[in-house]
Amino acid sequence: MTKLSKYEKETIINWNEGERLASIYTFNASLKRRLADFSRNYPLLCRLERSTPEGGVVYVLDKSRLSIRLVPPYSEERKAAASAYAREHGFQVLTPGKKTA
To answer: How many helices (H) and strands (E) does the chain have?
Structure first.
């Protein structure tokens, strides 16, 4: 087993118009975790097809469950409003396991 560079650790979404399933091949830890959770909760819609010795996984899922969200950049007005809201209401970082009153 060889160690892959970050450049080689890619995510590939295979989607074609002729099938109802899409496949996702990824090394991304966050995406792997989200896909694992989704497949546990909805085994009829998503399943782990295989994992690679290098750490990649391939999940197959119903295409109706997959979406790509494009987020435009915030306008200067929106950034200013968010900043003003944070100054007014404070900003508190919550750490796991720590509860606030």
So the answer is: 2, 4
Whole-structure pTM value: 0.72
Cα–Cα distance for residue pair 86/88, rounded to 1 Å: 5
Per-residue pLDDT tens for 37-80?
Answer: 999 999 999 999 999 999 999 999 999 999 999 989 999 999 99
CA of residue 34 relative to chain centroid, distance: 6
Distances (CA, A) of 17 to 14, 22, 71, 100: 10, 10, 25, 49
Separation CA 23–CA 49 (nearest Å): 9
- The predicted pLDDT at position 23 comes to 97
SS3 (DSSP) at 57: strand
